[in-house]
Amino acid sequence: MDLFREKGYSAASMQDIAEVGEVAKASIYKFYSSKEDLFTAAFLVCHQMLLEQASELDRSGMPSGSSPKEKLSRKIEFNLYYVLENHSFMIDFHELPIMENEPFVDAHKKMKTALLTWRKELLIETFGEQLEPYVWDAVLIFQGILHEYMNGVLRKVISLPIADLADFIVDRMEAVVQDLIRTAPKSIVGEGIVRSNHLERKDQEARKGTVRDFLTAMEERIQELPLSEISRMELKEVVGLLHKEVLMDKPNLTLLRVLKAHLEAVPELRSYLRQLKLLLT
Protein backbone atom coordinates (compact mmCIF):
# COMPACT_ATOMS: atom_id res chain seq x y z
CA MET A 1 0.00 0.00 0.00
CA ASP A 2 2.83 2.40 0.80
CA LEU A 3 4.29 2.02 -2.68
CA PHE A 4 0.95 2.77 -4.34
CA ARG A 5 0.60 5.79 -2.03
CA GLU A 6 4.06 7.03 -2.97
CA LYS A 7 4.09 6.36 -6.71
CA GLY A 8 0.44 5.97 -7.62
CA TYR A 9 -1.12 3.10 -9.52
CA SER A 10 0.39 3.82 -12.95
CA ALA A 11 3.99 4.37 -11.85
CA ALA A 12 4.23 1.43 -9.45
CA SER A 13 5.40 -1.74 -11.21
CA MET A 14 5.27 -5.32 -10.01
CA GLN A 15 9.07 -5.24 -9.90
CA ASP A 16 8.94 -2.21 -7.59
CA ILE A 17 6.45 -4.05 -5.37
CA ALA A 18 8.68 -7.13 -5.26
CA GLU A 19 11.71 -5.05 -4.28
CA VAL A 20 9.85 -3.25 -1.50
CA GLY A 21 8.50 -6.56 -0.19
CA GLU A 22 11.93 -8.17 -0.57
CA VAL A 23 10.48 -11.10 -2.45
CA ALA A 24 10.90 -12.47 -5.94
CA LYS A 25 8.54 -11.01 -8.52
CA ALA A 26 7.36 -14.54 -9.33
CA SER A 27 6.29 -15.00 -5.71
CA ILE A 28 3.79 -12.14 -5.99
CA TYR A 29 2.14 -13.82 -8.97
CA LYS A 30 1.40 -16.86 -6.80
CA PHE A 31 -1.10 -14.70 -4.90
CA TYR A 32 -2.07 -12.00 -7.40
CA SER A 33 -2.36 -12.63 -11.12
CA SER A 34 -1.79 -8.99 -12.05
CA LYS A 35 -1.06 -5.53 -10.73
CA GLU A 36 -4.79 -4.82 -11.09
CA ASP A 37 -5.64 -7.65 -8.69
CA LEU A 38 -3.05 -6.45 -6.19
CA PHE A 39 -4.30 -2.86 -6.36
CA THR A 40 -7.88 -4.09 -5.93
CA ALA A 41 -6.90 -5.95 -2.76
CA ALA A 42 -5.09 -2.88 -1.42
CA PHE A 43 -8.06 -0.69 -2.36
CA LEU A 44 -10.44 -2.89 -0.35
CA VAL A 45 -8.13 -2.97 2.68
CA CYS A 46 -7.74 0.81 2.56
CA HIS A 47 -11.50 1.41 2.58
CA GLN A 48 -12.15 -1.23 5.23
CA MET A 49 -9.56 0.45 7.46
CA LEU A 50 -11.32 3.79 6.95
CA LEU A 51 -14.63 2.38 8.17
CA GLU A 52 -13.05 0.42 11.04
CA GLN A 53 -11.05 3.42 12.28
CA ALA A 54 -14.14 5.62 12.00
CA SER A 55 -16.03 3.16 14.21
CA GLU A 56 -13.16 3.19 16.69
CA LEU A 57 -13.62 6.95 17.07
CA ASP A 58 -17.02 6.28 18.65
CA ARG A 59 -15.58 3.80 21.11
CA SER A 60 -12.48 5.61 22.31
CA GLY A 61 -11.61 8.65 20.21
CA MET A 62 -14.23 11.22 21.18
CA PRO A 63 -13.83 13.69 24.06
CA SER A 64 -16.31 13.04 26.86
CA GLY A 65 -19.49 15.05 26.54
CA SER A 66 -19.11 15.78 22.81
CA SER A 67 -22.33 16.95 21.14
CA PRO A 68 -23.66 15.16 18.04
CA LYS A 69 -22.38 18.02 15.85
CA GLU A 70 -18.94 17.88 17.48
CA LYS A 71 -18.80 14.13 16.90
CA LEU A 72 -19.73 14.58 13.24
CA SER A 73 -17.08 17.27 12.84
CA ARG A 74 -14.37 15.03 14.27
CA LYS A 75 -15.41 12.17 11.98
CA ILE A 76 -15.33 14.48 8.97
CA GLU A 77 -11.89 15.70 10.06
CA PHE A 78 -10.73 12.09 10.30
CA ASN A 79 -12.30 11.31 6.90
CA LEU A 80 -10.60 14.29 5.24
CA TYR A 81 -7.18 13.43 6.65
CA TYR A 82 -7.58 9.76 5.72
CA VAL A 83 -8.55 10.52 2.13
CA LEU A 84 -5.75 13.06 1.73
CA GLU A 85 -3.19 10.58 3.04
CA ASN A 86 -4.58 7.76 0.88
CA HIS A 87 -5.72 9.67 -2.19
CA SER A 88 -4.16 7.09 -4.51
CA PHE A 89 -6.83 4.65 -3.32
CA MET A 90 -9.65 7.14 -2.77
CA ILE A 91 -9.58 9.66 -5.64
CA ASP A 92 -6.67 9.51 -8.06
CA PHE A 93 -7.57 6.27 -9.87
CA HIS A 94 -10.82 7.49 -11.45
CA GLU A 95 -9.28 8.34 -14.82
CA LEU A 96 -6.96 5.33 -14.95
CA PRO A 97 -7.26 2.06 -16.93
CA ILE A 98 -7.93 0.23 -13.65
CA MET A 99 -11.54 1.48 -13.96
CA GLU A 100 -11.95 -0.95 -16.87
CA ASN A 101 -10.94 -3.93 -14.75
CA GLU A 102 -14.11 -5.84 -13.78
CA PRO A 103 -12.98 -7.12 -10.34
CA PHE A 104 -11.87 -3.60 -9.42
CA VAL A 105 -15.10 -2.03 -10.70
CA ASP A 106 -17.07 -4.49 -8.58
CA ALA A 107 -14.94 -3.69 -5.51
CA HIS A 108 -15.32 0.02 -6.19
CA LYS A 109 -19.12 -0.25 -6.31
CA LYS A 110 -19.22 -2.21 -3.05
CA MET A 111 -17.09 0.40 -1.31
CA LYS A 112 -19.22 3.23 -2.69
CA THR A 113 -22.26 1.51 -1.22
CA ALA A 114 -20.51 1.08 2.14
CA LEU A 115 -19.50 4.77 2.19
CA LEU A 116 -23.00 5.96 1.25
CA THR A 117 -24.47 3.83 4.05
CA TRP A 118 -21.89 5.14 6.54
CA ARG A 119 -22.66 8.74 5.61
CA LYS A 120 -26.36 8.09 6.02
CA GLU A 121 -25.71 6.74 9.51
CA LEU A 122 -23.60 9.80 10.36
CA LEU A 123 -26.36 12.20 9.35
CA ILE A 124 -29.10 10.31 11.20
CA GLU A 125 -26.95 10.07 14.34
CA THR A 126 -26.30 13.81 14.22
CA PHE A 127 -29.62 15.28 13.11
CA GLY A 128 -32.12 12.64 14.19
CA GLU A 129 -34.81 10.43 12.69
CA GLN A 130 -36.76 13.44 11.40
CA LEU A 131 -34.26 13.57 8.53
CA GLU A 132 -35.19 10.02 7.42
CA PRO A 133 -37.66 11.02 4.64
CA TYR A 134 -34.93 13.08 2.91
CA VAL A 135 -31.83 11.32 4.15
CA TRP A 136 -30.57 10.04 0.78
CA ASP A 137 -30.86 13.52 -0.75
CA ALA A 138 -28.88 14.83 2.23
CA VAL A 139 -26.31 12.05 1.76
CA LEU A 140 -25.69 13.05 -1.87
CA ILE A 141 -25.35 16.71 -0.91
CA PHE A 142 -22.99 15.72 1.93
CA GLN A 143 -20.92 13.55 -0.40
CA GLY A 144 -20.66 16.31 -3.00
CA ILE A 145 -19.51 18.85 -0.42
CA LEU A 146 -16.89 16.45 0.96
CA HIS A 147 -15.62 15.57 -2.51
CA GLU A 148 -15.19 19.14 -3.70
CA TYR A 149 -13.47 20.37 -0.55
CA MET A 150 -11.19 17.33 -0.52
CA ASN A 151 -10.16 18.15 -4.09
CA GLY A 152 -9.60 21.77 -3.09
CA VAL A 153 -7.25 20.73 -0.30
CA LEU A 154 -5.45 18.25 -2.58
CA ARG A 155 -4.93 20.96 -5.22
CA LYS A 156 -3.62 23.22 -2.43
CA VAL A 157 -6.18 25.95 -3.14
CA ILE A 158 -7.72 25.68 0.36
CA SER A 159 -5.54 26.81 3.27
CA LEU A 160 -8.12 26.51 6.07
CA PRO A 161 -7.01 24.03 8.78
CA ILE A 162 -8.72 20.67 8.35
CA ALA A 163 -10.43 20.86 11.75
CA ASP A 164 -11.94 24.25 10.85
CA LEU A 165 -12.97 22.95 7.44
CA ALA A 166 -14.76 20.04 9.13
CA ASP A 167 -16.63 22.48 11.39
CA PHE A 168 -17.57 24.56 8.34
CA ILE A 169 -18.95 21.49 6.53
CA VAL A 170 -21.01 20.48 9.59
CA ASP A 171 -22.54 23.97 9.80
CA ARG A 172 -23.43 23.87 6.09
CA MET A 173 -24.98 20.42 6.44
CA GLU A 174 -26.97 21.58 9.45
CA ALA A 175 -28.42 24.38 7.30
CA VAL A 176 -29.26 21.90 4.53
CA VAL A 177 -30.92 19.48 6.95
CA GLN A 178 -32.93 22.20 8.67
CA ASP A 179 -34.16 23.43 5.28
CA LEU A 180 -35.17 19.91 4.20
CA ILE A 181 -37.09 19.35 7.41
CA ARG A 182 -38.71 22.81 7.33
CA THR A 183 -39.78 22.79 3.68
CA ALA A 184 -40.53 19.04 3.46
CA PRO A 185 -39.80 18.73 -0.30
CA LYS A 186 -40.53 15.62 -2.28
CA SER A 187 -37.44 13.43 -2.03
CA ILE A 188 -35.52 13.11 -5.30
CA VAL A 189 -33.59 9.94 -4.50
CA GLY A 190 -34.26 7.02 -2.21
CA GLU A 191 -32.43 3.92 -1.09
CA GLY A 192 -32.30 2.88 -4.74
CA ILE A 193 -29.27 5.17 -5.06
CA VAL A 194 -27.36 2.52 -3.10
CA ARG A 195 -28.60 -0.35 -5.25
CA SER A 196 -27.81 1.63 -8.41
CA ASN A 197 -24.10 1.44 -7.57
CA HIS A 198 -24.30 -2.22 -8.55
CA LEU A 199 -26.12 -1.63 -11.82
CA GLU A 200 -24.46 -1.56 -15.19
CA ARG A 201 -25.65 0.65 -18.04
CA LYS A 202 -26.72 -2.60 -19.72
CA ASP A 203 -29.11 -3.41 -16.85
CA GLN A 204 -32.18 -2.70 -18.97
CA GLU A 205 -34.86 -3.50 -16.39
CA ALA A 206 -33.45 -1.03 -13.88
CA ARG A 207 -33.08 1.66 -16.54
CA LYS A 208 -36.64 1.07 -17.74
CA GLY A 209 -37.80 1.74 -14.20
CA THR A 210 -36.01 5.09 -14.27
CA VAL A 211 -37.63 5.96 -17.61
CA ARG A 212 -41.07 5.03 -16.25
CA ASP A 213 -40.60 7.29 -13.24
CA PHE A 214 -39.38 10.12 -15.45
CA LEU A 215 -42.36 9.90 -17.81
CA THR A 216 -44.69 9.89 -14.81
CA ALA A 217 -43.04 13.12 -13.70
CA MET A 218 -43.64 14.53 -17.20
CA GLU A 219 -47.33 13.67 -16.92
CA GLU A 220 -47.49 15.46 -13.56
CA ARG A 221 -45.92 18.52 -15.16
CA ILE A 222 -48.49 18.46 -17.95
CA GLN A 223 -51.25 18.47 -15.34
CA GLU A 224 -49.83 21.75 -13.97
CA LEU A 225 -49.69 23.53 -17.34
CA PRO A 226 -52.12 26.42 -17.96
CA LEU A 227 -53.93 24.56 -20.75
CA SER A 228 -57.46 23.41 -21.36
CA GLU A 229 -58.40 20.04 -19.96
CA ILE A 230 -58.71 18.67 -23.49
CA SER A 231 -55.17 19.81 -24.37
CA ARG A 232 -53.76 18.28 -21.19
CA MET A 233 -55.52 14.96 -21.88
CA GLU A 234 -54.16 14.93 -25.42
CA LEU A 235 -50.61 15.55 -24.22
CA LYS A 236 -50.90 12.84 -21.57
CA GLU A 237 -52.12 10.41 -24.21
CA VAL A 238 -49.04 11.21 -26.30
CA VAL A 239 -46.80 10.62 -23.25
CA GLY A 240 -48.62 7.32 -22.68
CA LEU A 241 -47.86 6.23 -26.25
CA LEU A 242 -44.27 7.40 -25.83
CA HIS A 243 -44.07 5.49 -22.56
CA LYS A 244 -45.27 2.29 -24.23
CA GLU A 245 -42.95 2.66 -27.21
CA VAL A 246 -39.68 3.48 -25.40
CA LEU A 247 -40.09 0.43 -23.15
CA MET A 248 -40.35 -1.98 -26.08
CA ASP A 249 -37.34 -4.11 -26.97
CA LYS A 250 -37.41 -2.70 -30.50
CA PRO A 251 -39.18 0.67 -30.44
CA ASN A 252 -40.53 2.17 -33.66
CA LEU A 253 -38.09 5.04 -34.23
CA THR A 254 -40.35 6.83 -36.69
CA LEU A 255 -43.23 6.80 -34.22
CA LEU A 256 -40.91 8.02 -31.46
CA ARG A 257 -39.86 11.01 -33.58
CA VAL A 258 -43.49 11.89 -34.31
CA LEU A 259 -44.49 11.67 -30.65
CA LYS A 260 -41.50 13.73 -29.51
CA ALA A 261 -42.16 16.36 -32.17
CA HIS A 262 -45.72 16.71 -30.88
CA LEU A 263 -44.51 17.26 -27.32
CA GLU A 264 -41.73 19.64 -28.37
CA ALA A 265 -44.41 22.06 -29.54
CA VAL A 266 -44.99 22.76 -25.82
CA PRO A 267 -42.05 24.92 -24.59
CA GLU A 268 -42.43 23.74 -20.98
CA LEU A 269 -41.78 20.13 -22.04
CA ARG A 270 -38.64 20.65 -24.11
CA SER A 271 -36.26 20.22 -21.20
CA TYR A 272 -38.03 16.94 -20.33
CA LEU A 273 -37.52 15.64 -23.85
CA ARG A 274 -33.89 16.65 -23.78
CA GLN A 275 -33.38 14.69 -20.56
CA LEU A 276 -35.36 11.75 -21.92
CA LYS A 277 -32.94 11.55 -24.83
CA LEU A 278 -30.05 11.26 -22.34
CA LEU A 279 -31.88 8.55 -20.41
CA LEU A 280 -32.40 6.50 -23.56
CA THR A 281 -28.78 6.64 -24.79
From TrEMBL:
Gene3D superfamilies: Tetracycline Repressor, domain 2
Domain HTH tetR-type: 1-50
Keywords: DNA-binding
A Pfam entry, by short name: TetR_N
Keyword DNA-binding in annotation: yes
The keyword DNA-binding appears for this protein: yes
DNA-binding region positions on the chain: 13-32
PROSITE patterns: HTH_TETR_2
Superkingdom of the source species: Bacteria
Protein name (Swiss-Prot/TrEMBL): HTH tetR-type domain-containing protein
Organism from which the protein derives: Paenibacillus allorhizoplanae
Species lineage: Bacteria, Bacillati, Bacillota, Bacilli, Bacillales
